[in-house]
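Support reply, case 0932

Customer input (verbatim):
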Amino acid sequence: MIIYESVFSRLEFFKDDNFIEATWFATTEDMTPEQYKEAMTNYLKFALEFKPKRALVNLQNFLFTVSPTLQEWTESTMAKSLLKLGWKEMAMVVSPEFISQLSVEQLMEEKLHQNFTTKYFPTKEEARKWIMSLSDSKSV
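Our regenerated output:
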């Protein structure tokens, strides 16, 4: 079920498989840092509301470069709350755009994200297959 949609992204919650999927759109090329923060704040809001155990993040069309300052903001704002939810696995469908991919990988290498098993996939189908293969017992 779609739980949030904006010009930059869409969030879907899959109750039966207990995961949230974030899809970023190419419109992120024109996104401002403030709009990035708003999008991430909404992501956190819905994650806290629906309490999924894992996430799939589709970054194939993510064209915004996450600056080091925004990486720090994301780390301090998002990661601690997501860890409290008990997240263990995250599937990332990577962008073909090298700079945005690099900034995302740098973000995921931050200290708190070392508590996640993060796997990178070239397609949404492969990422979804991995996410759906995980049992709830692995995520508790």
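We compared this against your earlier run and they match. Two observations from our side: The first strand starts at residue 2 and ends at 5. The helical segments are 33-50, 68-84, 98-108, 124-133, 136-139. Please reopen the case if you see a mismatch on your end.
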